Amino acid sequence: MKGKRWESRLLIATYVLCFAMFGSLYLLKEPYDTGAVVMAVIICLLFTYGYIIIRKFFPDGDKFIIMFTAVFAVIGIATLYRIDTSVAIKQVVWYTIGMTGFIALVVLLPDLKSFGKYKYFFMIMTLIFMGMATFIGQEKNGSKNWVALGPIGFQPSEFGKIFFCAYLASALKDYKKFKDLIQPAVIVMISLLFMVLQTDLGSALIFFGIAITMLYISTSKSKYVVICFLLLAVGAVISYKLFPHVRVRVNIWLNPWSDYDNKGYQLAQSLMAIATGGFLGSGIGLGYPELVPVQISDFIFSVIVEELGIIVGFGIIILYFLLFYRCMRAAIFVQDRFSQLLAVGYSTMIACQVLVIIGGVIGAIPLTGITLPIISYGGTSMLTAFFSLGIIQKISEDA
Amino acid sequence: MAGDINMDYSDLIKPILGVLVIVIIYVIIFMALRIMYKDVKSGDKKKSLKKVYGLEVISVVEGSNLKNGNIVPINRVITLGRKEDNLVILNDPYASGYHAKIYPKNTEYFVEDLNSTNGTLLNDEYVEGRVPLEIGDEIQIGSTKFRVIG
User: Fold this and answer.
1) Is the ipTM of this complex over 0.95?
2) pTM (two decimals)
């Protein structure tokens, strides 16, 4: 019972964070902005509701996943509120939908084991979603990865990721000999090719990360990993030579200041925002988030760091790491092979996404536009993050 | 004038809130690590179930090590089968090596057939996948019968 007391303290700490952030936003405007307080109350009610359901009806499951998503949602929505109130309201709606989906998955989903046999269904869905944007996609922020079906616009590769992990888990769970790897390898290559054709390099990197981790977990042979990295190197060189947009990205990364006004603008602005923020940040409301491009999704990390300091940036990275640890923990303890690989796939997906985008905005690796899970604005990315975490939550009950 | 005083007031609070945000994020990390540390240290996780169900043996084959009226509490995963490393060993010619398992999960108890040759019967119906248990249910494996008691 002692553990329970600490858990409620954690819950209280999250409330304090929520009210501290929205409290600063409340004081920011003249007259004071009551909307911020309403927002804070709504968010607190949402994650408390989710936590109580998990705590009461599914006590065998992990309780941290929902707590960490609450912290990310608080930071994300407060930052969005600071940038643009209307975007923050939309994000709260997405957070509500994501949370509802998370709880619904945990309540309704039967035993996950039984999904292991739908290998070909997962395969077809993966190929459909991967290919969709290549054929009927529209260009958005330099990547042709956006599909509009009537009034609804979404990023098919985000949904593709979910099926991609499910397919790999069902294909690799029966791994015995090298021949079993040929079919998954072909599917992975086709997916990567589609991503490169859509100029969605960030997603390509994530797919590669997922595939290589799941391959290693299922075969535990390091030679496959080495071969994969060699193939990656060859693929990277070829796409560097072949596609101009890859060259542009690499050149910006090597020297963002050489073409400051034009192609290097995004990264240069992001680096300047981070540098201005310094260790403790300029304080909420005192930075200039409007100078950072794509500030509500891809570059939200730079905005947070500018106003709250790199120290909060580190905190966010640590929290993502802890989330990753909790997800992997579920994978370690679960008996069923399919569930295990699925949990590994989804937790790698989230971890890779964090590494790729944070590495990108701080200029550590070439910048590729993807979202920061749960913090960034975006309906599709919110839904996929909560969907995969919901599955992991379900798996953690068996662990 | 009143406005000025207000301004001073909020100027004082803003930096405090700023520091609070930083502090609380690290407090959350610290608390999470602390709970996780306890969780790692205590190893086997404890079940928070209020009611513990049990299995009462109500029918056995001859020569079995089980006797009518024996009670097995279901406080962890109970494996049943003919092999020696099961928790409940069934000396029953119709039982498989690893026949079935009965375990608590969340707030319920489940019985699961482990692809046994002759199947597991729950109230005279074959068990497929995992099925939740109620008090009074009868589980039959080969000729051995159990009743779920609360």
Assistant:
1) no
2) 0.88
